[in-house]
Each structure stands twice: as structure tokens, then as C-alpha cells.
Amino acid sequence: MRRITLDIETRGAVGSIFDPLSLELTVIGIHDSETDTYRAFTKEELPGLWPILERADLLVGYNSDHFDIPILNKYYPGDLTKIRSLDLLAEIRSVLGRRLKLDSVAKATLGKGKSGDGLDAVRWWEEGQYEKVKKYCLDDVRITKEVYEFAMTNGKVRYLDLGKRKDISLDTSRWESEKGASLTHTLPF
To answer: In the predicted model, is pLDDT for residue 183 greater than 60?
Structure first.
């Protein structure tokens, strides 16, 4: 199974009603399980990303079904929603009944947190610190991948709740057992 773990960084004004589709993609970071490599792509480099995603059996992210994939789909000439995806935040929310920050899950599950904040990435991009944004994005991909792998191995993740570490049991049995959607043929011919 070829699994692509992903995360994006964006820029743009956020009004009183948050609409992720109003944001502009600056960087997408991925881990490709087939090659065990990490790569970052800017908006201009997206054509090099499409063949990788089209051969994926599973896209993995954190808040990816609500944020990353819809924004990325604005730039894709086909339909990325046709590729099977797993949103770790959605899995956690379906069990816990509320949303958790990736940083809270990472600290409790892996013993390490995120290397920054999404707003830092916006500022760094505006300042022209593009490599710093790519590094930050790839750090989030690495953490998301490690949380996913922990869940697959242990059937749970952890989070911090008022300073106490708590477990969230997750049914990971279907995550990799279902047929993937590689070779999606979503591009119009």
C-alpha cells in the first residue's frame, strides 16, 4: 500500500467566517511510504506532485479532509477527493467528540511537539523565508506520520487534558485493509 502523508501551508486573509477555500497554498509537504522520502512542493511545483498523488492508495493527514485536500484540490485538474483519505483529526473526533490540536496529540503520544505554529509559517512566507516554511511543513508531515504509525501499532493515540495524558482508542483495522484508490484516472482526458 502506497501511503502519502501530507500537510499544507497557506496564506491569505481570514475573515469572520472561516473559509479554507479562500486561502492560497504556499507549500505542501509529503512523505511517500513507497520511497520513504520527504519532499516539499511550492505552488509552482505542483505538476510534479500530481503523479505521486495519483498513484497513492491512501492520503493521510491531520484535518486534511476539511482543510488540506479541499485547498489542494483547487489546483488539481482532476478530483483529489476520489483518492481514499484518512483524516486523523476526524478519527479522533469521532471517538472523543471534540477536536484536538496536533501539538497536544504529538506531545502526549510521541513525547515531542510541533516545531512552530501555522501563523509563524504565514509570517515566514511573507518575509521570504521559504526554506523555513518548507522545513516547518515537513516537520508537521513527520509528526503526522509518526502519530499515524503509533496508532497503527498500538490502536490508540494520546492527548493532554489539563496536564494529564489520556488515551483515545482508535479502530485502525480498516485504515490499511480497505482497497486503495491508486491509479484514480481523475484527470480529464
So the answer is: no
